[in-house]
Specification:
- The chain contains eleven helices and no strands.
- With 221 residues, it is mostly helical.
Length: 221
């Protein structure tokens, strides 16, 4: 009877994947990364630390191989262009993703369903999120410190590529749209609402603020 009880979990996954696709299609994720790189300037460690924090925040709402690859093709070239060794760049990126997933409601729902093994689920995300926040912070600190130590031992090149080459060829998403990344988690923590409500609200907020609801073709594509 295991698979028969996975209905709510699969619905959460579908809505989470939908929201993740919207973040990618509207350019919100690439804009956040671009702004982060601009803030870090030509300081490799600062840029890497900021990107680690941003990736962790993004993956509190996103999950799956698609977003990992889509964001990775943006983040990893940036890290390598500022002199971060490719092995360290990959470890830093994956460690940052793992930190964010510790506070991801969809991931929590999956593991909760597995642990319950068909029984009644009494441990909710509202019970878990404080522990998840601590775990996220601890792992992110470890990833940043470890990366900084390794980076200090390596000779890095000047980060000219960060200043002269854009993160991608797309346009920046409106600044007001960028906060939608944290909506799903905030809706669960602050308003005690199901994570699906957060995904739906954040998705339509992203589409609205990015001007994708003006035409049916733009919204449906």
């Amino acid at each position: 009877s295991g698979p028969e009880s996975w209905g709510p979990t699969l619905v959460n996954i579908f809505f989470g994947a939908w929201f993740g696709r919207i973040l990618l299609e509207t350019g919100i994720t690439s804009t956040i990364i671009r702004k982060t790189v601009e803030l870090g300037g030509d300081r490799p460690f600062i840029t890497m630390a900021l990107l680690s924090a941003v990736v962790s925040i993004i993956f509190t709402s996103m999950q799956g191989a698609g977003p990992v690859i889509a964001i990775g093709v943006i983040v990893l070239p940036i890290l390598m262009s500022i002199g971060v060794p490719k092995t360290l760049a990959l470890v830093n990126y994956m460690g940052s993703i793992g930190a964010g997933l510790l506070l991801n409601p969809v991931i929590f729902t999956q593991y909760n369903a597995i642990m319950a093994m068909g029984g009644e689920i009494t441990y909710t995300f509202e019970d878990y999120y404080k522990f998840g926040i601590v775990c996220l912070i601890v792992q992110l600190i470890i990833v940043v410190i470890m990366s900084g130590i390794v980076l200090k031992k390596r000779k890095t090149s000047r980060a000219w590529a960060v200043n002269n080459k854009p993160v991608d060829d797309g346009k920046n998403a409106p600044g007001i749209s960028l906060i939608c990344v944290i909506f799903p988690v905030l809706f669960v923590i602050l308003f005690k609402l199901p994570v699906i409500v957060g995904f739906i609200f954040a998705s339509f907020y992203a589409l609205l603020t990015c001007g994708k609801l003006k035409k049916y073709e733009d919204a449906s594509s």
